[in-house]
Amino acid sequence: AEGSTHTLMATVSQYACQRRTTTENNNKIFTDAFEVLAESYEFNEIEGRCLAFRRAASMLKSLPRAVRCLGEMQDLPCLGEHTKAVMEEILQCGCSFEVKKLLSDERYQTFKLFTSVFGVGPKTADKWHRRGLRSFSDILADRSIHLNRMQQSGFLHYGDISRAVSKAEARSLRNIIDGAARAITPAAILALTGGFSRGKEFGHDVDFIVTTPELGREESLLPEVIDGLKKQGILLYCDYHASTFDVAKLPIRRFEAMDHFAKCFLILRLEGSRVEGGLNSAEGDGRGWRAVRVDLVSPPMDHYAFALLGWTGSRQFERDLRRFAGAKRGMLLDNHALYDKTKNEFLAAETEKDIFAHLGLEYIEPWQRNA
Ligand code: CTP
Ligand code: MN
Ligand code: MN
Ligand code: MN
């Protein structure tokens, strides 16, 4: 077994889209440490180092077993001097001194706390930290601080939306969205995407594609679905973005840029009675409901496969798909389209399999994309 595993490790690709990564992580001891380091670089806007640690963690997650010694690291891609040094220390001492120091660092702790609020990113966290604010009560007591609508909802529903969403809750939400969409048009198409479509047991939200076969109709479908949820009295927050999609636009290079499809970021009220097996968390504090984050995106049907591939994730898998498309195939890929720069043409796709085929990649199932 030792020999064959070693061979497997020797052939690991540097691209997540050429690896199969399930939810089983055999290298959690290393990847948890890397995530703290990546976060810290993210808080300090050192993007290169942040990505290096995320890329290394992603590679380790794909391995069939734990890395056990320094020698095994030599054949693995995505590991630089810094990442290797951290791993070596963990192998020798059981933990990383640098990570331990960060976890007890006041700045790291404050950024971690502030960015855990829906609508608060590193920039806002930095602004608040510079003002000497250190806790939620500091922020809420400071009258000179203006919270936008998203942040207000973030604080209002903090307890609920920072609690993990279960598969059963995702199923209940699916029924709710499905009902709302079907009430508008029986032809509505609803697909679960994001972490739950990759087989994750828990998520921070639930992601869906909701659209219709009739081209152009999807743009008005989403506002109507939102209106339906509002009429049911379960819409607690809605950040709606109308479509700015233009078929002629080339795929965008920046990964973090938002796509152009009609979409919304919601907070919904999930009634306990609709959840099979009860809603433990909400029952715990005497309510029959909880607030939950839901994302809906409405691509036109002829771009469905790209939207599905883009929203299934993981983020690292998406990053590497794009990086691979550019570096290895001379193509541009984003959530809308695939463009071949050598042929100067868009490559159409009806399914995710078509896109993998265009890229000359073996098909990777959604549950193998937990990179
Ligand atoms: N996504 C996107 N554009 C956005 C938001 C998300 O393309 N404005 C994509 C992300 O790239 C990701 C997927 O949608 O691949 C799901 O994002 P998210 O819900 O943040 O992550 P999950 O993988 O679902 O993990 P979690 O369980 O934490 O929600
Ligand atoms: Mn999600
Ligand atoms: Mn997430
Ligand atoms: Mn999401």
Automatic annotation (TrEMBL):
GO MF terms, alphabetically ordered: DNA binding; DNA nucleotidylexotransferase activity; DNA-directed DNA polymerase activity; metal ion binding
Group of enzyme by EC: transferase
UniProt keyword terms in alphabetical order: Magnesium, Metal-binding, Nucleotidyltransferase, Nucleus, Terminal addition, Transferase
Top-rank taxon, per record: Eukaryota
Chain residues that bind Mg(2+): D205, D207, D295
Transmembrane segments annotated in the record for this chain: none
Subcellular location: Nucleus
Cofactor(s) this protein cannot do without: Mg(2+)
An individual GO BP term: DNA modification
EC number, as in UniProt: 2.7.7.31
Catalytic activity: DNA(n) + a 2'-deoxyribonucleoside 5'-triphosphate = DNA(n+1) + diphosphate
A Gene Ontology cellular-component term: nucleus
Keyword Metal-binding: yes
Similarity-based family: Belongs to the DNA polymerase type-X family.
Task performed by this protein: Template-independent DNA polymerase which catalyzes the random addition of deoxynucleoside 5'-triphosphate to the 3'-end of a DNA initiator. One of the in vivo functions of this enzyme is the addition of nucleotides at the junction (N region) of rearranged Ig heavy chain and T-cell receptor gene segments during the maturation of B- and T-cells.
Protein name: DNA nucleotidylexotransferase
Biological classification of the source: Eukaryota, Metazoa, Chordata, Craniata, Vertebrata
Gene assigned in the entry: dntt
